[in-house]
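> run fold Alpha-amylase 1
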Amino acid sequence: MSPFVRLVLVLHNHQPIGNFDGVFEQTYQDSYLPFLDVYERYEGLPISLHTSGSLIEWLAVHHPEYLDRVANLVEQGRIEVIGGPFMEPILTMIPGRDRVGQIRAYSQYLHDRLGATVRGMWMPERVWEQTLTADIAEAGIQYTVLDDYHFRNAGWTPDQLHGYYVTEHDGRLLSVFPGSERLRYTIPFAEPQATIDHLRGIAEQQPGSIVTFGDDGEKLGSWPDTKQHVYDNGWLCRFFEALLANQEWLKVTTPGEAVDNVAPLGKLYIPEASYREMTEWALPAVQQNAYHDTQHLLEDEGRWELIQPFTRGGFWRNFKVRYPETNEMYCRMLQVSNRLAKLRTQGDGGELLDAAQYELYRGQCNCSYWHGAFGGCYLPHLRNAVYKALIAADNLMDQHEGRGWEGDRSYWVEVDADDYNLDGRKEIRLASNRLKAFLAPGEGGKLYELDVRSICHNLLATLSRREEAYHRKVLLGPTGDQGAVASIHDRVVFKQEGLDQMLQYDSYGRKSLIDHFYDIDASLDAVSMNEAREQGDFVTGAYESKLRRNPDRMQAQMWRDGNVDGAPVKVTKGVTLEAGGSELEITYLLENLPGDRPLHFSVELGMAGLPTGADDRYFVAGDGNRLGQLGTKLDLADVDSLNLVDEWLGIDVGLSMDRPTSIWTYPIATVSQSEGGFEMVNQSVVVQPHWILQADEHGRWSVTMRMKIDTTMAESRMHQAAEAATV
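> ok
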């Protein structure tokens, strides 16, 4: 057989739910549009294109002409559109019913909008578990693309991966193409001839082979430095010309054509995996560094290539352990999915539930559930977008049941306990038509979610400061510019100066109702940097709890018998919510206090989604005067109220206390990694009332705080928009 090889090119274009319009537009101008402009000029090079649902919906609104051009190429047979789950969830983190539902819904959308008959799918982040096979096949999919790393984990060698395999679960079959890691690093970072030489070697050694490239389309223009390299310097034109110049032995094709004309190499069961870098990111930070240190040591000794085929990183699902905040989001998503499924099982239907399902799918978008060089759990706007969708889905189901968030007839309140965050312990849910609060008695009695239903916003979508493996690079400083275009995995770029001085870590989750006992002289700076000494064991200690019910008033009461520097102290706190109200009443009773010395007691209140650095987000004193932007450090004494206003979001969070109070405020910011480099990202603002307290004659002390959440600004804008839409 004469030397011959098929090259399957699969491009994956994606932008997550909640990303800024400016990012969508810039990526369109830098990557999606110029690629199409170049590609249309080169006939005879069929490719496969995957565009995520979140991106294609944006394109449909802002650049429908782009989709019209893609549809024309589909009609010509030049582009094979591949589908997948509509809103790009990691399939292993959503229920099977949602896997099948998302895939089918997107296949139908692509057929209606682009005229595409969808046979294959993109596997989001290539996160794979073998049991997915049955659901994918049930959804009507014949093939997908994983990385060759997955196949090597099964024990297959590189020369066994020049084709595709079939895999099976519960009798359902799926064809799987191994995407070449070698090509992921040569396209577009090496000259086209490097790819041609690699393919020629395969054609000569294994004639008739199939070699698959599957990777992000954004690397062709929107990854750092690639626009100039790929388009201005002509890399993409040279690449396409090289492919055409070698057509006598190199056939560029699609997965569908390959499946129709080439038999599978065999049958294979594929271990759990993702792409190699993702499995490393899933490891704890210390283990990531140990892994890389060991790799470098073995490379220096010339032994790494012998051992590499048998090394594996971590398990994707453990991102929910590394980042408990993503577990909270995941569990909230499951609550919404399970509630919707229950309504469907009862035979309920209609437009409201269809809209709720759409919002659920949006809330399953994967990017804010993990982190690496990509992955957006460190990006507040992505987390906020997921919660916005999930809360909207809940609101729609409430509306379906006749108890929406606004209107006098909808006033209601309820309280219950269940294992809401799937940790084996019961949490408490306080809910009304205006607010929904989740408390964790087993973790310091903290308030870990507070949904403001009128604006679909979770005020506690916070993120703690924690060590990351790449912080070693931050401490070493940026790499010099060598003039070459580097893969995003190899770049060390600082988007701000002094990041090495900003690394701070938290020893507990930054939420609300965190109970602290500090040294008397603890300072704002020490507290904000998590360096103040804790005298007590209440921050993460387990509280006992009980629920108090009244038709129009529900309360969660929690208490702990703990210690403050060896002295037994009891802390009891109650959180009360009324029907129709937008206020949490928070009461504290401290008992068994030592009578021979004062104590420094503080209640930490973290709030997320209220950004710093903007003049329309600010603190307001009790006398109405502004005290600076929400990122301002404040050290207030003898006050009884403080408001946090976000005019853009349309919310005013008012805190009031029934006794004179000192208050600290400070921002929580992380040093994290993104495609563009290392940067400081604001995560939340902390408002921390604190008191130097002296017990009364009975060894007791108490305070009542109120958190009133006013969204009049936002609601007024909603009503104005609704009225304008009817005109």
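Residues 470-717 form a domain with the Beta-galactosidase; Chain A, domain 5 fold (CATH 2.70.98.10).
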